[in-house]
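Team,

Forwarding the record for the chain on the shared tracking sheet. I've put the sequence and predicted structure together so nobody has to dig through attachments.
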Amino acid sequence: MAVPKILLVDDDMGLRRLVRLTLGPDYDVFEANDGQEAIEVARREHPDLVFMDIRMPKLSGYEACRLIKESPDTANAKVVMLTANTRDEDREIGERVGADGYMTKPYSPLALLAKVEELIGV
C-alpha cells in the first residue's frame, strides 16, 4: 500500500513544522508557503489530504481550495481548512469552496490525527 501524501499549506513555518511532527513518519508530507505554491505542489504530488490555512500571501486558502477541488488532477484530494478563523461565516465559505473539513488553531494533535483517520482512513 502506498504511503498517504499530505500537503501542509501555511505561511507560518513553525506551524508547518508542528503539523509535520504530529503526523510523524507514517505519511509523505509536502509543504507550501502560500496558496499559489499549494496549487503547484498539489498538481505535482497529488496529495490525499491537504491542510490549508486561509489567510496567506499570493492566493488565499479559500481560492486555493476551490482551484484544487475544480481541477480534475487534484479534485480527489480531501481539503481541511486549518485556521485561526473561528466565525461560522468562515466555515460556510470553506464549505462553498469545497473544503471537506474545518479545524481551528490552536488544534489538538490528537484531533488532527483523528481528522486524518476520518478523511483518508489511515
